[in-house]
Amino acid sequence: MPDAIWLRLPVKNNTKQDLDLLLEIAYPLLDEIELYSPNENGTYQSIRLGEHQNFSLRKYKVPNYLFDIHLHCQSEKVFFSVLKVLSKSYCRSTSVANANLWRR
Fold this sequence. Notes:
It contains one helix and seven strands. By secondary structure, it is mainly beta.
């Protein structure tokens, strides 16, 4: 069973415009990453990417993991992400990931 690290990612839009953002998890050696995005009805949808999935199926053809995030004006959403690494020794000896939020 892979080691899993959970992240809670609150994102707030204080502007008067809707925002389209990119969440980047800058650690291409993750075995699996799953982002849980809140829907309007209070449920969550998940998007799963990973080192062992077909690279050609990714929307963004870059080594790091990128996720689209849309925020309505004057709103806040809380995203959750789980990072999984199969090698316990590698996970313990290395910093896990950097998360960046980019405006598109």
